[in-house]
Design goal:
This protein is mostly helical and 216 residues long.
């Protein structure tokens, strides 16, 4: 039993490493040994991108809450809140990177799946089966295209928010006093609006992911 668990763990780590370094063929071969083909991997990673986006949304919202909590604090307390805000910002960067990496992975697997699907259709002799397989492929491509557009929109929405977060954190680092915080109230409103828009984009992408997984 222990040997079996270790073997599975080793295969998983090997698969992850091979995907990162770009050995796609070997990566898929490792997963196939564990009973997972490209369509399974695509479904799994679409589910994970949905989870990554949900976690990123929560992290971005927490930064806004942290910023708003700074008002009404005196100088000494501001230092502590700033440190936590800086940590929250770094966590947002990490969450955003995780979303980007996962989206890239989903797109690579989808491209490989569709390429394989096309080549397999070409080998089907039965005209009825060939037609139905091609229709199924086109339907999956269309649904993935909708998902891809929503993921791209959500991904693009993160960049301006992260830039504003960084500007805000750096400004506070250089001007950590009640007067400086008070002068940023307008920026806080703009950041909150941007984050709300980002979360809406994330939620739309999550819904598209739900729909794609449900109909695979």
């Amino acid at each position: 039993m222990k040997h079996s668990v270790l073997k599975i763990f080793f295969l998983l780590m090997t698969a992850a490493f091979l995907f990162i370094v770009g050995c796609q063929t070997t990566y898929y071969a490792v997963w196939e040994k564990m009973g997972k083909e490209k369509r399974h991997l695509l479904k799994d990673n679409v589910e994970k991108v949905r989870e990554d986006q949900a976690e990123a949304s929560e992290q971005f919202a927490s930064v806004v809450a942290r910023i708003k909590s700074m008002y009404g604090f005196d100088g000494g307390e501001l230092e502590d809140v700033y440190e936590k805000l800086s940590e929250d910002y770094m966590a947002c960067e990490e969450r955003a990177d995780a979303v980007r990496d996962r989206i890239d992975k989903v797109e690579r697997i989808a491209a490989d799946l569709f390429k394989e699907w096309e080549s397999e259709i070409a080998t089907i002799e039965n005209a009825k089966f060939k037609s139905k397989s091609r229709a199924s492929l086109q339907d999956t491509r269309n649904r993935f295209a909708r998902l891809q557009r929503s993921m791209a929109r959500a991904e693009a929405s993160m960049d301006p928010v992260l830039t504003n977060f960084q500007d805000y954190v750096l400004y506070l680092k250089h001007n950590l006093n009640a007067q400086a915080v008070s002068s940023l109230k307008k920026e806080v409103t703009e950041i909150e609006t941007e984050v709300s828009s980002l979360i809406e984009d994330m939620n739309r992408s999550i819904k598209e992911a739900d729909s794609f997984v449900k109909n695979m």
